[in-house]
Amino acid sequence: MSFSDLRFIFFFLPPFVLLHGIAPSRLRNTLLLVGSLGVYAFGAGLEAAAMLFALTLLNYLFARWMPEGDVVLRRAYLALGLLLDLGALFFLKYFNPVLAALGSALRRDYPLLRVAMPLGVSFYVFQMAAYLIDVCRGDTEAETNFIDFGAFVAAFPQLTMGPILRYGDLRGALKERKPGREDVEQGFMLFALGLSFKVLLADQLAYLWVVLERIGFDYISTPLAWLGAVGYSLQLYFDFYGYSLMATGLGRMLALPVARNFDEPYLARSVSEFYRRWHMTLGAWFRDYLYIPLGGSRHGTARTLLSLAVVWLLTGLWHGPTLNYLVWGGVLFVFIALEKLLLRRAFGRLRVLPHLYLLFVIVQTWVIFRIEDLPRLAAYFRRLYPFFGNADAINYGDFYKYLSSYWWLFAVGIFLCLPWPRRRYESSRGSALVWVPLFALFWLSVYFLSTGSGSAFLYFRF
Q1: Does the pLDDT of residue 66 top 60, yes or no?
Q2: Which of 87, 154, 183, 236 is an S-S bond match for 179, by CB 3.0 to 4.6 Å?
Q3: DSSP, res 270
Q4: With contact defined as beta carbons under 8 Å apart, do 399 and 224 qualify?
Q5: What's the CA gap between 402 and 410, in Å, rounded?
Q6: What is the pLDDT of residues 109-131, one digit of tens each?
């Protein structure tokens, strides 16, 4: 069930937070596990919930079975657990595309063999894999209480779209949390802020891309193509950032520290810095569990570039089975490699140019991320760069038409990407200057949701 579902907001969340607050400490994790599995089953189905429970149980057992002194056996259980986790992820994410390609080649259909990808599987599988690796390394102890471990994996604030948490960071809070009134108040404020980002910004910007698809990428003008690229960049940011704020707020209501996932990424000066600020927990996962074990930057330039290439191609595969994600990951690798080899020194102490470079590059990579069909992707880029016989693309009629409708969303979105609004919020969040506007934005968001103006979170499909 989505955080922006009115049933979640009004029928699940208030009674759950109340029961969680008054429950004895020893029962809170049981309540969290049962409530989270219930919400997940309601939204994703009983089969998906059963698979989540089974993977959680098996990962719990593999970690428990790792002996203290036997390194070989510890690694054997780690390998078995990773094979289970990543194998399940690969099967669920890629079985359907492979089957469809096979059916197309053989001109046959295999409906009985098709499987549905469970909601959030990409996130919770990485979380469980990180736990096994940390236990094997000795970075954290294997949890002996299955209820506590299950609550960590299934906790509804982060289950379906992250952030990807580390058990060592959450162990203490899981066992000894005492949510109070301030936790609920501050958590609700973050939840309301994230909901308004999602419903009032991301969902409204989404209509612009719908218009572009309805017109057809072969028929939009170059200015409108660039407007659409910027609009989608803002839509994706406020959709996922809104979710992350809501997850952080829900965690705060339960006295659980949910890691921050965004740090003003559009203020970055390079692509590599952008991805240290965007979806930070996923980037940290690939850094700690893949890039550094592959050698990182410790063994010369060639080895560093090889490690980066593996990381970014696998990052593309993590997002989806279609070729555009591999292209997206490959393009990001190329720019990050160029930054390491050339651009970092060329930019030097320049202030404005690196920011302009980042914004120019990143909005185009989001177009690759968005359009799964490669011929349609090529058509969009022909409109972005009308240098090959597309003279009709240079006109401003459709650009002015849609800019007049969406300019205020662009203005608000760009303003909120700057550091001042967040600093102002953090310095005044206990005052009426914050409470009153957030309360109004919350109910305005509820109104939009009640009229059917909302849409699913974009990262649900990953």
Answers
A1: yes
A2: 183
A3: S
A4: yes
A5: 11
A6: 766 556 677 889 999 999 999 99
Write the CA distances from 216 to 180, 221, 247, 366, 383, integer angstroms. Answer: 53, 10, 36, 18, 11
Q: Which two tokens stand for residue 363?
A: 């909005």
φ/ψ (deg, to 5) at 314: -70, -30
- Look up 319 and say whether it is catalytic: yes
Has residue 389 got a pLDDT over 60?
no
Q: Left, alpha or beta for 138 (phi > 0: left; psi -120 to 50: alpha)?
A: left
**Which residues, at least 6 apart from 155, have a Cβ–Cβ distance to it below 8 Å?**
32, 36, 251, 254, 256
Distance separating alpha carbons of residues 156 and 290, to the nearest angstrom: 27
56-62 long-range contacts, Cβ below 8 Å, gap at least 24? 56/128, 56/149, 56/150, 56/153, 56/154, 57/146, 57/150, 58/84, 59/84, 59/85, 59/128, 59/131, 59/132, 59/149, 59/153, 60/143, 60/146, 60/149, 60/150, 62/132
Q: What Å distances lie between residue 192 and 9, 438, 446, CA to CA? A: 10, 6, 10
The tokens 């400490």 sit on which residue? 25
Q: How large a percentage of the chain has pLDDT more than 70? A: 96
Interior CA angle at 20 toward 18 and 22, to 5°?
Answer: 70
* AA letter at 353: L
Per-residue model confidence as pLDDT tens digits over 400-437: 999 999 999 999 999 999 999 999 888 888 788 889 99
**Domain boundaries in the chain?**
6-178, 183-461
Tell whether omega for the bond before 163 is within 30 degrees of 0, i.e. cis: yes
Catalytic member of 20, 279, 299, 319: 319
CB within 8 A of 145, min separation 6: which ones? 29
pLDDT of 453 above 60: yes
Q: Are 52 and 118 in contact (CB under 8 A)?
A: yes
Please give the pLDDT value at position 113. 56
What pLDDT is stored for residue 280 in this prediction? Answer: 96
What is the tens place of the pLDDT at every residue in 252-274? 999 999 889 999 999 999 999 99
Rounded to the nearest angstrom, the gap between the alpha carbon of residue 67 and the centroid of all alpha carbons in its chain is 35
Q: What is the DSSP string of 301-367?
A: HHHHHHHHHHHHHHHHHHH-SSHHHHHHHHHHHHHHHHIIIIIHHHHTT-SHHHHHHHHHHHHHHHH
**Stretch (H or E) spanning 203:** helix 203-215
pLDDT tens digits, one per residue of 196-236: 999 999 999 999 999 999 999 999 999 999 999 999 999 99
